[in-house]
Design brief:
mainly alpha; 2 domains
Length: about 180
Amino acid sequence: MAANAKHYVNNKQFLEAITEWKEKVKDAESLGEEAPPVTDYIGECFLKIAQHLSFRPNFINYTFKEEMISDGIENCLQYIDNFNPEKSNNPFAYFTQIIYYAFLRRIQKEKKHLFVKFKMTEQTNLFDTTAATQEHDNTKNFKDEIKVSEWTQQYMNEFISDFETNKRRKIKKRKV
């Protein structure tokens, strides 16, 4: 047992749990009943896989890590029926891949969302007009206090440029 202590999901138990659940689903379908929900153990395994995958260096620093984990678990539940214990005896690898690609899709969604926010800010020239002075604001120039830092402006411009370049590259690649 000491050798397995470092593993957070026991692949053999996970396979057995999925196999048993799939049998229950088949029985329910043959009786015309609703499929039983996924067991707590299977759900716990999905959660552990997603959480541990989120600790990898390429996923660790995202602020939307919880959304990534949720997407991964949701996709596992969506595609659990596609896992075939007769073809594969490694559900850990199967569901890790599903979660990995769910993470990548979430990152792309968030980058697109960030692009839209940055582009709107750029288009509306928001940073230059947010603190327009009014007649009763004769004591201070609020516009100068709210001005965005040069670093932030540079980051936004680079992000927009990189995003648009990647988008053009993908479109060009699709056409070829």
